[in-house]
Amino acid sequence: MYKKQLIKEYNPRHMKKLVYFQVLFILGLAVISPKPVSAANVGDLITCSEFSTVYFLGEDGQRHPFPNEQTFHSWYNDFHDVVQISCDDLATIQVGSTVVYQAGTRLVKLPSVPTVYAVEDDGVLRALSSEEQAETLFGEDWAERVDDLSEAFWPDFDLGAPLIDGEIPEGTVLRDDEGSLFRVEGDEAIEVDAVLDTDQEDNLQEHALELEDLEDRLGVALALIHVDADQAATVLAEILEKLQVIDVDDDDEAELDDIDELDADDADDADDAISDAQEEIAEAESDILEDQEDGKDISASEVLLAEARVHLAAAEAALAVGDFALAEDHADEAKHAAMWARGKAVSSIDDGDDSDEDEAEDDDIQDESEDESESEDDSSGEGDGDEADDESV
C-alpha cells in the first residue's frame, strides 16, 4: 500500500520564472523555421538547414537526439526555442545518448507487447499490472496517455520493478485545486512551481494529474511538501537536477574552450545579479524595520520581501546547478521585489546597475522633474517656440 507522507514545511508560492530544461534533441522539424546563429551554447536546442533533426547540446559537449516527436513533447510544447547553426559546426559535435521521455508525463508500451509502463527518472520503466491499476493511477482516460515505443529505442531505457498496488510512480506530476504543481519524489510530493519557467510550467500542466481525483481513486490523502525560503536553495537544487533532460556526471563534463568561455561570462553575470539582489534585500530589511519602529503598516512590504527572498533562494539554487540564465532571472526578480518592498516603484531593472547607480538614477529623475516644473513656470507667458524647447528638455 502507498505510504502516507509526513507533512513538511515548504512553501515557495507560485513563481513562474525560469529553470529551463537543458536538452539537445533530434526529431523531425516539419513545422519550424529556426533562427540561424553563429554558435550554440550548452542547453540549446539545435539543428541545421540540411537535416530535419533537432538535438540537445549537453554539458558533456555532445548533441543528444530526441528519437521522435512524442519524446520531445514530453519536455516541450513547441519548437520555438530551436536555433539553427551551420551544418559544418553541427558535424563537429559528437552525437551522444538519446533523450528519453520526461518522467511523469506519458505511459509507453512496445507495439508487440501489451504491457504498459510508467516512465520514472533516468528512463526507468515500471510496469502496470492491470488496467484496473492504470485507471486507479491515471483515470478513466489512461489509455490516451500511452505511446508506442519502438523496439529500436528499448535499449535506451532501464526496466525497474513492477508497480505495486497503491504506489505512485516517481516523477508523477500533480495539480492541486489552486493550479500549483507537485512532483512525486519517493514518499513525498514536492511543490515545483518555484523552479519552473513559463515553458516548463505550460508543459507540465499538460501532463499533470488532478490531485483531488487521484486521492479519491487511491482512497488516501496525500501529504504535500511546501518549502520556505530558507529551505529552498537546498531542496530546489535537487529538483533542478532531476528536471534536466540529460544528466551529466561531473567527470563527463566537456572542457570545450568556447563553451567554457560562454559559461564563465554567464556565471559572472548571474553571480553579480545575485549580489545585487542580496544588497537590495538587506537594504529593504533595514528600511522595513525602521518603518515598523515608526508605527507604519509594513504588511505589504513584508509580502514583497518574502517574495524577494524566495526568488533569491531559487537564484542561488539555479546557480549551484549551472543554470546561469535562470539564476540571473530569479536574481533580477528578487532585486525588483525588494525595491518594491522599499517603496521604489520601478518598472524595469538594468542588470548592469548596482545599488549606488540606482540611487543616482533616482536623484537624476527627481532633478529632471524639478527642472521641468521650473521650465513650465517660466514658459507661462512665452510663445510656442519656448514650449517646444521645454518639451525637448
Please give a quick description of this structure.
With 393 residues, the protein is of the alpha/beta class. It is built from eleven helices and 15 strands.
How would you describe what is shown here?
- There is one protein chain.
- The chain is built from eleven helices and 15 strands.
- The longest helix is centred in the last third of the chain and has 37 residues, at 257-293.
- The strands form three sheets. Strands 1-5-2-3-4 form a five-stranded mixed beta sheet, with no helix packed on it. A five-stranded mixed beta sheet has the order 9-6-7-8-10, with no helix packed on it. A five-stranded mixed beta sheet has the order 14-11-12-13-15.
- Mean pLDDT is 76; it is low at 1-33, 344-358 and 379-393.
- It is an alpha/beta fold and 393 residues long.
Strand order of the largest sheet: 1-5-2-3-4
The radius of gyration computed from the alpha-carbon positions, rounded to a whole number of angstroms, is 25 Å
Q: What is the helix fraction of residues, given as a range?
A: 40-55%
Specify the number of helices.
11
Low-confidence stretches at least 5 residues in length (pLDDT < 50)?
1-33, 344-358, 379-393
Q: What form results from the Cα inertia axes?
A: flat
Oligomer: single chain
Order of SSEs: EEEEHEHEEEHEEEEEHEHEHHHHHH
Strand content: 5-15%
Q: Report the biggest beta sheet as strand number plus sense, adding barrel if it closes.
A: 5 strands, mixed
The number of distinct β-strands equals: 15
Mean pLDDT: 76
> Distance between termini?
74 Å
Structural class: alpha/beta
